[in-house]
Amino acid sequence: MAAEGEGQLSNDLTKIDETDLLKQLDLQLEELDDDEFQLPPVGELPTLESILSENDPGSVSDDEFSLQPLTQPKTTFCTEGCDTLSVHSRGSSESRSRTSSTERHSACGRQRKDSQNKTHGSILRHVILKGVAAQLVSARDRVGAGLPTTMAVGNIICIGTSHGLILVFEPTQALKFCLGSTQLGEQYGSVSALALNHDCSRLLAGFAKGQICLFDLTTSKLLQTISDAHTPFTAVLHLKWTDYPGMAVISDSGGSVFQLSIKRTMGLNSNESRCIFSGSRGEVCTVEPLIMSHLRATPLIEPVILAMATISKVIIVSLMPELKVLFTFLLRASATTLPLLAWQFVVIQMQDGTRVIDPVLAFGREKNVHYYQLTHGSQEELQFVPLQKTTVSYVMQGLAWLNTRMLAVFDTRERLHVIDVKTQEELEEVDLAHLELVYASSHFKAIATGGNVSKAMALAGERACYHSIVNFGSQVLLLGTKSFQVVTVRSWEDRLDHLVRGGHSREALQLALDIYQDKASAVVGFKQKKEKRQQVVQEKIRLLLDQYLDSAQATLPDRGNLAVLTQHYSHVVSLGVKVAVGAGLEDVLFGRMWKTFSEDGVAKGIFLEALEPYILSDQLPDMSPSITQCLLSHQEASGRLQAAEACIVHLSVISLDLHQAMTLCWSHGLYDAIFYIYTRGMKDFVTPLEELVTVLCNAMDSGNTLTNNQVMLGNKILVYVSCCLAGRAYPHGDIAKQELQQVKHEVFKCLTSLHSKNAKSSENSYPFLRTLLRFDTREFLNVLALAFEEAEFTSELGMQQRQRVVDILIQVMVEGQGFGPTQLGSLFTFIARQMSRQHGAIAINRQLFDMVLNHLTAGDDESYQEERQTALLELLQEGGLAHYPHDHLLHKARQAGFYRVCEFVYEERGEHEKIVECYLEDKLRQHQVFTYIRSVLASQQFTDLHAQKIKQQFVTHIRTLLDIDSSRVASLLLTMPRLTPLLREVVEELQSDDQHLYSALHALFTYRSTHASPGAKGSEPSEGPLTPELQEEYIDLMCTLNPSHVYTYLKGAEGYRLEQTLEICKRHNQQESTAFLLERAGDIKGAFDILLVILKTKVDDLLNSLSTDDTPNHTVNLGHVQAQVVKLVRVCQLGSSQLEEEGRRELWFPLLDSLLSMQPPLASHSKLGEEVRSMVGHVVNSMITHISLHAILERVMRDPGYCGGNFAQIKHLLKGKFFQQKSDTALGGHLPSLSASNKVKFC
What we know:
Layout: H1 21-24, E1 32-33, H2 34-37, H3 48-53, H4 94-107, H5 114-120, E2 124-128, H6 130-143, E3 148-153, E4 157-161, E5 166-169, E6 175-179, H7 182-188, E7 191-196, E8 202-207, E9 212-216, E10 221-226, E11 236-241, E12 247-252, E13 257-265, E14 268-277, E15 284-289, E16 304-310, E17 313-320, E18 324-330, E19 339-349, E20 355-365, E21 368-376, E22 382-391, E23 396-401, E24 406-411, E25 415-420, E26 426-431, H8 441-444, H9 455-460, E27 469-472, E28 475-479, E29 484-489, H10 492-501, H11 505-516, H12 530-554, H13 562-582, H14 586-598, H15 601-616, H16 625-637, H17 641-648, H18 658-668, H19 671-681, H20 687-701, H21 708-726, H22 737-751, H23 767-775, H24 777-787, H25 796-814, H26 821-837, H27 846-856, H28 865-877, H29 886-896, H30 899-909, H31 912-921, H32 928-938, H33 944-956, H34 958-975, H35 983-989, H36 994-1010, H37 1028-1041, H38 1046-1052, H39 1058-1067, H40 1071-1081, H41 1084-1105, H42 1111-1136, H43 1141-1156, H44 1166-1183, H45 1189-1197, H46 1208-1220, H47 1225-1235
Parallel strand pairs: 1-19
Antiparallel strand pairs: 2-29, 3-4, 4-5, 5-6, 7-8, 8-9, 9-10, 11-12, 12-13, 13-14, 15-16, 16-17, 17-18, 19-20, 20-21, 21-22, 23-24, 24-25, 25-26, 27-28, 28-29
Helix pairs in contact: 10-11, 11-12, 11-13, 12-13, 13-14, 13-15, 18-19, 19-20, 20-21, 20-23, 21-22, 21-24, 23-24, 24-26, 25-26, 26-27, 26-28, 29-30, 30-31, 31-32, 31-33, 34-36, 36-37, 37-39, 38-40, 39-40, 40-41, 41-42, 41-43, 42-43, 42-44, 43-44, 44-46
Domain Vacuolar protein sorting-associated protein 8 central: 606-788
Protein name: Vacuolar protein sorting-associated protein 8 central domain-containing protein
Region (Disordered): 86-119
């Protein structure tokens, strides 16, 4: 029986008020939205007839496999130390759940992954309903009820047995009714399916022999017995009530699905059924109707929707108002696995901020789970849209939702896995093998009706447990052969307490922080609104921190061992600080925690260092000045000055002891901190600039080389000035808007002040500006250039300020002393840029202007050349040099290598042909010349005169153009109509330069071959600008400059004249090419003679290489010989079709003789000799169809290599042809004379 305090089911499960809808749905998890999952629209839906007519690809025939029973786990179940818990026990008291948090781990064999426990804690509470389990065992032993087979859960618990009894339990685990009898079980078989209607007043019970009984649970009376509602002689596998009053769904072992309507008319009970899916088209294994009657707020109230799953397909239909297919999906998996279905309602937040409740169907098979949302599409049509897919590493056999974000998956090893649907992370794993889960394999095999099911159905149902794993709200009920258990999700607070009780305080703190920061998974149990949840969690963390600190102090190690003590404090302090900061508990951090750790010197230092990362990440901007004072003192004492500076600039000034901080900064040169304290604490942006520039000036005036620290100071000053003039705070952040104009004005005024405060009579004018120019002229001028981009310097007053700055710069650097040529050059570049960008607003005298121009175009100075050219070009483009003679400017620009400047001037003067020279002389832009030539010749805005001049430049600089890119030269000549006529002129220009002429012709003919149209290969050779004469000239040059490519080119080329090309090849002694051309001309004998000469040469090379031990060289030479033999065989075969017997012998026998002559020298080289004999065999087998066998044998046997031998030595030469021509009488006539004695001598 249940413990005291467990009452009846709460009334809120009967009928839910719409105002409390979201709370009752228990939607504690993060919501889904359409944007996150990118929900696509669903296309046209199929009809029911089309589904029924499809072949089920996952089904298998009865003959494709044989059934093999699966072994089930055999474990003994232990009940010691386990709890009794009611179905609705999520809020159970601490006393009831304490045992299950510790002892049950060992007693019941529950196992979890350690890494998951540390990350998420114990998410599930797993308890045994001892009252139900004990009465199941008692009913089996005392009244012969048999083993449990199925269950249904609602306001009550109904469990069917193998002997036809149905035990009905109250939520308190008290037995309420025992329906049926053992005699009924003998007649109907075991109870195979149960279904409770929404108010638990009616119970449908299905039996293994096919009968269905309807019970009234208010009176325990049998109302109807239905025997003809589904396929005869099949077991009832599933019974499900729908939303529609009196309507249920039946699924039987024949794979068919029926709609059952139960009515009561004039005091009489009646029923009728109709088939909605026939098992002849694929057996349905499970069904799951969508129950929406308790969601009065949802728009999906009219349709009655049913999800069905065959062995390999999910089909969703609407039963009311009309039968219609809504969705189908193929599930391909192992034949031993069953499909799984589970509905869940989820809150969906729409793009307009509204929230709707839509059902989500999770379905899967083997290792894959799919999630689809049912929603309204266009014109109120129902649509299924995919959310995501999850793949697991185990084989599934059960599926149940725990809430809107967690799915419970039961695998074939009888382990329960909890999966976060959104992240697809496995949160926890529980071993339930001790449960001895009930399987419905006998029902799926229809043993009670003679086993009249398909083998596919029987095999897939071997591990069917649809009715043994049932979810009710956020609980999963599990039916075992001797036990009845419940798995439910722990509340967030219970998870924390469970970790603390187990001695895992650190894990509890980390989990609590994750919950506070909304990073934890599977968080349930909050009764407050979202904005108030953090306050509740914060108070829980405060309590946990107090317990953690008490425990840490209680377990303090011996103070004599400093290493162990340091490790202990590091372990404790780091987590405590992390949690206190993360949860916003500064009062705990700087209260009890500081008091606890500051009493010990070791702990104090560790605590102060633990604060640093949170200060630097701006999580701790405010601290007590006394603690900050300790922190800075500790950092100074340990020599961590950079860390001290970093902390100062991230803390609020009110957290600092200003005297201590400023003393520390000036003593150790912490310049960022000095700027920070002055600007943030005193709102003074000028004083730190004046003081630090003075420090830098004194360092530079000392005459010594600046130290690294002094160089760093100068760089920081430049960055500080740049930030102030741009409106940004230094070293980070932004200046307040109300202070922005004042700060810019004060800093600018300081830089351009004539003298400093309390200046000595010897002080130079503009000391601050002068010092920064001396330190780094170029970078300081860049700072000014960036500042001039601000809006303050674009007004009329701002332009005057610009002019003033330029005048000061000229006065200090040009008219004054102490600046070198490089520094002056940076100034002149800066002035030129300002002149070009301000459209004449910056004025300088003509003499200075000449100095600027001379510097920019200095040909002997290669420093910053591109920057100087850009400045001059910008000045030129803005008209700043309109009064300057172009010829003089061009002269200076060419001397300096400023070809972009020359291009601009030539463009202005219309001398486009000279721009070609600019491109050719500019090494960085040479390749752009082709684009420019093409643009000029293709554009309509250029006259014929311009085009003519460009063409002249093209011919004049043809050699340079070829050196840059010969392929682009060819492209221009062949694709630009204005350049194509110049082809002959280009060739004549290059007649005295064979290398460039060959390069040009090679590019031209290569371009033609690679860009020819599909039909161009058969065109006339005279067509186009590339004439046969030009091609023959190209071949002639190739024979001289690149002779190894001639043969390859001739084989693939078209358009050349055969006779003229043959003469060219003969003149250059291109033997292989000559043979190829003779063959094309029909002179087979001439081609053969040349190829034979080449073969003999290559044979000589091979024989000559035998004197060395260079094996790779032997292999290369042998390869050359083999390749030449192949060519000769092909020529001989070609000639044999045109010649008589005598002529054929003149081709084949010289080839054979050449190969036979190789054998004696190779007698000592077995491998090479074998290769040569293989070549001889190839030649003999190739010639046997053209030369008589007798003549071949006679020729072979005359060879010294075979003279005196027997027939076995040459049998391999004829073996292939012998078996091909064994019926040839001519061949048969020669064999007896040669093999009579198996020894034939010809010498």
